[in-house]
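Why do we bother with holo predictions? Because pocket geometry can differ from the apo form. Keep that in mind while you read this record for flavin-adenine dinucleotide.
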Amino acid sequence: MSARVEKSLGELGRSLSGSVVGPADADYDAARRCFNALVDRRPAVIVRCAETDDVATAFDFARTHELEIAVRGGGHNPAGHCVLDDGLVIDLSAMRTVDVDPDARIARADGGSTWLEFDAATQAFGLVTPGGIVGSTGVCGLALGGGIGHLTAQHGLTCDNLVGAEIVTPNGAVIRATQDENAELLWGLRGGGGNFGVATRLEFQLHTLDRVVGGVLAYRGRGVREALRLFRDVASGSPRDLSCQASLSVDESLVPTLGILPCFTAPDTDPEALRALRAASGLVADGLRAHSFLDQQRVEDSPYGENRHYWKGHFVRDLPDELIDELLARIVAFGRPPVHVLIESLHGAPKDADQALGGIAYRQAAFNVSAMAVWRDPSVDEEHIQWARDTAAALERWSFSGGGYANYMQADEPMERVRAAFGDHAFERLQALKTQYDPTNVLRRNQNIPPF
Ligand SMILES: Cc1cc2nc3c(=O)[nH]c(=O)nc-3n(C[C@H](O)[C@H](O)[C@H](O)COP(=O)(O)OP(=O)(O)OC[C@H]3O[C@@H](n4cnc5c(N)ncnc54)[C@H](O)[C@@H]3O)c2cc1C
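The structure, written out:
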C-alpha cells in the first residue's frame, strides 16, 4: 500500500459510519477471507460500510487514490470476486437487516444480508421468496446473478422476484429502480450481476409458505444410474409444486453415490412423484419428511473458507441417458471423492415467467449441470481444476446455448460464456445500461458486462 493511502486511512475512517480494516488490523485476515479457500488476496483497505453514504465515500476514496474496487456481499462467489490484491473492498457484511412488510408481501434486504437472515425474517410471517440453498450465501450476490434453489419450480429464479432496488453507482449517485422508476435498470439487475452499482437494498415479492416435504434421498451403487434417470423424468414431468436437485459423487470405494433434494410444497404429504423416487432401487437412506421451510434450508451446508473450489458447467437442453452415463464415467474417472456434479432442474415457474422481466435466456434450458471440484490440499490444485474443466468440456455437446451460470463461474471464464447466458440482443441491452451507469467499468471484478 502506498504511504499516501496509508496516511489517508484515518481520515477515511472518520468520514464513515462504518469502519476501515487495513493490513495492520487484528481482524484483517478474517475480513479478507472468502468462501473459496483457493482465493487468498491482500487488499490495501477494506471499507466496512454501515449505510448507503459509506458506499459513496468508498467509491470516492478509491477514485482519489486510483484503487481498483471489489464488492463483498456474502463472500460466496467461487471466483473470489469479493476480494482483490492491493485494491479497495466495499464490504457490505455489516449491512444485514431484512425488513418484511407482510401486508404488501415485500421484503427489503440490505446489501450484505444472507439467506439465513432473509429466511428467518420472512418465515416469521409464513412468507418466502426463492433463494439459495446454503444459508451463508449473500442475498444480493445470488439474486443479481439469477438464483436457483428449493423453490425455483414454484416461484422462478430469485431475480424474477426482484421488484425494487437502491444502488450506489461508481460516481456516488444513489438510484432507485422499480417498475415505475428506472425500469430498464431493474430489468438489468435481474441477472446482470453487480455490474451497474452497489446494491444497498433489494426488494423482493413474497409468497405464502409454511411447511414443505423435503430432505435428502440417498442412493448408492448400481441403482444410481436408474435413480438419476428417474430424477430426470420426475423433475421434467412434475408440476410446479416440486423443485428438485441432484448431487452425484463417489465414495472412498469409488462406488457412485447420489443425493436427491426434493422440495414439495402442495398439501399432499405423500405425493406420487416422491413415492416413485422413494421406491427406486439403490436407495440407502430416506431422509424425506414434512418440515418447516427453515428446516429445508438447513438440509445443505458447506464450511466457509475451508475448502478449495473450482466449478464449471453448462445449462443443458435435456438429460438423455448418454449424458447420465457420461457423468457417471467422469465422476468415477477422477479416482476419489469428493468431486461431484450438481444437477439443478429449471422446470416450472422459470419457464412460465414473463420473458420481458429480465434478460436471462437459460431459463429455457432443462437443467443446470455443474462439475464441482472441492478439495483441501493446495498441492493437488491442478488435477482438480483440470477435472472440472474436462468434465464441463464433455458436457458441451448437450449445452443449451454455450452459456454458463454467472453465479458459479470462476474468474477465468471468457466473456462469450457470460454473453451466451443472455443472448446477443439482451447482452447489448445490458451493455447499454453498463455504459450509462458505469462507463469506465469501475465494477469489473464480476462476470463482466463491458461498456460499449
Ligand atoms: C456454498 C455455496 C452455495 C451456493 N448455493 C447457491 C444456490 O443454491 N443457488 C444459486 O443460485 N447460487 C448459489 N451459490 C452461488 C452464489 O449465488 C454466487 O456465488 C453469488 O455470487 C454469491 O453472492 P455473495 O454475495 O455471497 O458473494 P460475494 O462473493 O460477496 O459477491 C459476489 C459478487 O456479487 C456481486 N455482489 C454481491 N453483493 C452485491 C451487492 N450488494 N451489490 C452489488 N453487487 C453485489 C459483486 O459483483 C460481487 O463480486 C452458492 C455458492 C456457494 C459457495
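Residues 156 and 353 are 7 Å apart (CA to CA).
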